[in-house]
Every structure is written in structure tokens, then in C-alpha cells.
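Could you help me review a protein record that somebody else here produced? Here is the record exactly as it was handed to me:
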Amino acid sequence: MFRKQTHKQTLENLSTSVILLDEKLCIDYMNPAAEMLLEATAKRLRNYGVEQWLTNDSDELAVLKKSIHSGHPYTRREAKLLTMSGHELTVDYSVNPLPLQHSPMLLIEIQARDRLLRIEREEELLSHHAATRNLVRGMAHEIKNPLGGIRGAAQLLERELEDEALHEYTHIIIEEVDRLRNLVDRLLGSHQLPKQEQVNIHAVLERVCALVNAECAGKLALRRDYDPSIPEFTGDSERIIQAVLNVVRNAMQALQENEVEAPEIFLRTRAKRQVTLGSERHRLVCCLDIIDNGPGIPTDILNTVFYPMISGRADGSGLGLSIAQSIINQHHGLIECSSEPGCTRFSLNIPLELSNENAR
């Protein structure tokens, strides 16, 4: 009994999706990893045939049926799998027949290639962002030092000039120095540590919607689809408002500048379980999707939109998305982006439960 219970706990703690089919190719068992992958419980999937969640290819179904009687295992690479919510996944899966006495069964192990590729992409994004931030911080400090000297010299020069008509030039120097210093301060970001308070993501979104509605005077449709089950989490609500506002305002400006007919921004929240962000796996994550129906992000800057000074707009500073990514990173989360004409999506992923090490 103890050994049986241990085996079950082992299967349920695997990150590999494991499914056991009976002789009729109906689900007998599936571990939690498989339920998350297929976005459905074992109880629900027992009502569906294997052709509705694994493959509807007649040749593949024939191979499955043949395998359970012949006892020959096989593997499929880069197969397409459709989850119950309609998401298409690229997976590798292995089929191993189990010649049990009472009836033969099939053991299917599924590895999601999309997930591995996503982890690699996220780790690369986090690494590049951290390296860029360090480089920018170093350059910003080097720029700030001489700016103070230039401003002071301009002030002294203004006092020595008897001709007040020449003061216009010293005013220009001082104003431009102040403008550059403000830009550098924005690059450096806040020096204060994030506050630790309870944050309600939907209160944050309603605050952002109120600000955006005031800016666009009702000329932009804001649609919401909230998941009420998302709990509060520990963070700095003002900074998260700033991050969300930067992304939403970026979408709003893109819609306005391109004069999109019926401009719309869609805000959707969902709670996701067992999500890997970079190299960290989190039990529960708040996923906020910000979707607009604008022209999309140019492909030549899509992979660098979170870098400072990168902007697709002629008058853009290129700091809004970089600052938003830094704020979400401070909360151990990540912003991802995908774009095509008519649909640009920014996904803000914020862990709802942190390990003790991350929480410190």
C-alpha cells in the first residue's frame, strides 16, 4: 500500500505529462501536469475520445490501436496537439504499451516543446534586459556628472553677462541640461525599494482605465474580462499602476497615431497554475493581457521593444515599455509581447505566491 501511494505521488509531482489509456483508448489516469497541458481534468476528458484531444489523424489512430495489441512502443516528434480551450501546442510524445494481465493499456508521455522554447526565450529576455539596464545605469551616471558642471557654469556665466539679451542663450543651456537630467533620471528609475502592500489587480486596472478615459475623452473603447478568483498579492500598487499605464498608454498612442477605425483595448486577467517565468517555477501566476487592434509593432523592433530608447513612434522616448518591464521584474514577473496587424498583445505575468527566498 505504501509503495503504491509513493508511486502515485511520484507521478503526480512529475513535470512530464503522463496519461494512461485503456484498451478502448479512453483515459484511465492522467497526472496534474497532463491536466495543465490539456487544460482539462481527467474527469472531463473521460467523456471525450482520444481523437478530440491527442490526434484526429486516422493513420495515427490506427497506429495507436495497433500498438496496444502488438506491444511495440513508438515516438512522435513535433506533433500538433489541440487543448480543450482551443490552443494549439507543439509536443513530442512517446507511446509505451503495458501488457497487463487483466487488459492491455497504453502509457503516453508528452513533452511540450512550446514550453521549453518559451523558457529559453524568457531567460534570454530577462538576461538581455538586465544587461541593458546595467549598461544604461553606468552610462547615465557618467552623463549626470558633467551635466551638473555645465548647469553651474551656465548660471555663473549668466551673472557675469551685462547684456540681458545674451541671457536667452544661458537659459537655453540650463533648460536643455535640465531636460537631459530628467531623461537620465527616468533611465535610472526609482532609487526607492518597492512598497510591500496588498495589491488588487482589478483595482489597479480600474484606476488605469479611469486615467486613460480622461486622456482620450471617450474616443477609445476599453473592454474588460476579469477573473474574480485572482487573489490579492504583495507588491507596490503605485509602481504596478505605472507599469500597466505605460503599456496601455503605448497602445492608446499607437491607435490614435494610426487613426484606427473603432480603436479598442481589451484587458483580460486570468489565474494560471504551475507557470515557469525564466528559470523560476511558480505555483500561481496572475496573467494580465493587454490587447489592442492597432497596426501592430514593426517586425524589426519586435524583439527589442523592452530596450531603452527603442520606439516605433517618431516622437516616442522609448522608455515606457522598458520601465514597465523593470517594474514587473521587481515583482519577480515578466512582460511578453506578440504582435501582428490588428492584434498586439502584451502579457504581464506576476507571481501571486513567492518562495521565501524571493519574498525577502
Notes: The chain has two domains: 2-115, 193-359.
